[in-house]
């Protein structure tokens, strides 16, 4: 079970030095941080970094205490990058080691998400001499290409 959205928000405030004042933060400030978290993860989804984070259908539908099911390897990247996004709003400057950690952990997420597309050859191309019938494939041509569009670990893409 992953962290809750509240844990990411409080850890991000901790990273910019506001954790001891978490009880002084208003519900509006927590909700604003939650919206920034949701926007950041949505932009990562657009880049192909799918973490299993439950994105709300509307900014007002997000719940701070909802479990995220994000893998533990992505937690540091999420809260450090969220801290960088939150710091200017609170007049805080991000420490250089926080910036370095955020960049390094984000690059790790990018490298895990980067999969080069498989080369698709046409079905009319001859298979060649290396494809022997005793290997279980007795057709002189290559198999038809498959659709390379995958939705990732979130599931299928649905169009309404």
Quick summary:
By secondary structure, the chain is mostly helical. Helices cover 38% and strands 0% of the residues.
Low-confidence stretches: none
- Provide the number of structural domains: 2
CATH architecture of the largest domain: Orthogonal Bundle
Morphology call: elongated
In CATH, the homologous superfamily of the largest domain goes by the name P22 tail accessory factor (Gp4)
End-to-end CA span: 31 Å
Rounded to an integer in angstroms, the radius of gyration calculated over CA atoms is 22 Å
Number of helix segments? 4
Give a written overview of the molecule.
By secondary structure, the chain is mostly helical. It folds into 2 domains: 109 residues, Orthogonal Bundle (Hypothetical protein yqbg); 29 residues, no CATH class. The protein has 4 helices and no strands.
SSE layout:
Layout: H1 5-15, H2 27-46, H3 75-86, H4 96-113
Main features:
4 helices; 160 residues; mainly alpha; Hypothetical protein yqbg
């Amino acid at each position: 079970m992953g962290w809750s959205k509240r844990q990411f928000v409080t850890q991000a405030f901790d990273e910019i030095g506001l954790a001891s004042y978490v009880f002084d933060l208003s519900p509006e400030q927590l909700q604003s941080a939650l919206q920034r978290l949701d926007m950041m993860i949505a932009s990562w989804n657009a880049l192909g970094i799918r973490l299993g984070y439950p994105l709300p259908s509307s900014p007002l539908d997000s719940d701070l205490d909802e479990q995220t099911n994000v893998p533990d390897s992505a937690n540091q990247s999420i809260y450090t990058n969220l801290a960088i996004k939150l710091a200017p709003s609170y007049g805080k400057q991000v420490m250089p080691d926080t910036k370095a950690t955020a960049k390094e952990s984000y690059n790790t997420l990018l490298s895990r998400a980067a999969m080069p597309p498989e080369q698709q050859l046409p079905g009319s191309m001859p298979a060649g001499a290396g494809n022997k019938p005793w290997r279980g494939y007795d057709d002189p041509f290559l198999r038809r290409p498959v659709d390379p569009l995958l939705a990732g670990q979130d599931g299928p893409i649905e169009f309404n």
